[in-house]
Amino acid sequence: MDGKIWNKIIWILKREEFLGNDKINFSKVRENLKRCSRIDITNSKKKDREDFKTMEDIRKAIINCKKCPLYLSRTNPVVGEGPLTPNILFIGEAPGADEDISGRPFVGRSGRKLREILNSIGITDDMFYITNILKCRPPNNRDPNSKEIDACVPYLDFQIKKLNPDVICTLGTFASQFILKTNERIGILRGKVHHKNNRTIIATYHPSFILRNQSMGSVLKNDLLLCLNEVKKL
Ligand code: URA
Ligand code: SF4
User: Fold this and answer.
1) DSSP strand E in 64-216: where?
2) Among 99, 97, 66, which Cα is nearest to 80's?
3) Does domain 50-233 have CATH number 3.40.50.360?
4) What are the pLDDT digits (tens) for 61-87?
5) What spacing in Å lies between the alpha carbon of 90 and ligand 2's midpoint?
6) From the CA of 124, how far away is ligand 1's center (Å)?
C-alpha cells in the first residue's frame, strides 16, 4: 500500500486514541480514511501533529497557530475557558465578532443567553469548560470549511482528552453533527444522551437560535438539565 495511505491510517488511529477510544472500529477507520483522503498528512510538519502535554502547551500552540488562513483575519484566537477538571465541556462552532475581539468564548449576546440559563439551573462557572471547534473566527461568521476544520480539530481532540469531562454538550447543528459524526438534524439529535468513543454526549440548540426563537428557551434549558442529571449520576 502507498506509504501516504499508511500515514493517514496511523493519523486516524492516533486521533481515535486522543478521543479515548481504545477499540479499533475498522469500518469507521475506512469511513474516516475516505473522508480525509484529501488531506496530505505526509506534508504536514511534525510540529503540526505533536502530542501536547498540558493545557498550557495547547494554549501557546493556538495563540501562535498559522495552520490555516484564518490566522490572517482573526484579531485573537479563542482557546476556551474553564476549570481543568470540568464536569461539562461545551463545544460551539467558532468564535463570533465579540469573541474575536476579546479572545474569550461565548461572551457576546448568545453567550450571555447561555450563561443566564446555566446560572438559573445551578450550573456554575467552576463546573464547565467552554470552547469551539474552530479557534479563530471565520470572516463574516461564514461556515467553517473542511480544510480549516481538519487543521484545527487536533486542538479540540487534545482538549477533550486532557479535560476528560463527564459530559460533552454540543451547541448547535454544526458542532453536534461534527462531534456525533452524523448528518441528522439537531431537532432529532437533541434531548437524548449519546454514547460515542466512551464519551457521554448531549446535543442541543445553539443559544443564538434561542435568541431568534424565544419560545425554544425551555427546550435548551431542559437539555442543559439533562447534562446536569448525567453529571449527578456519576
Ligand atoms: N458562537 C459560537 O459558536 N461560539 C462562540 O464562542 C460564540 C458564538
Ligand atoms: Fe490555527 Fe485553528 Fe486558528 Fe486555523 S482556526 S489558524 S488551525 S487555531
Assistant:
1) 88-92, 128-132, 167-171, 193-196, 199-204
2) 99
3) no
4) 999 999 999 999 999 999 999 999 999
5) 19
6) 19
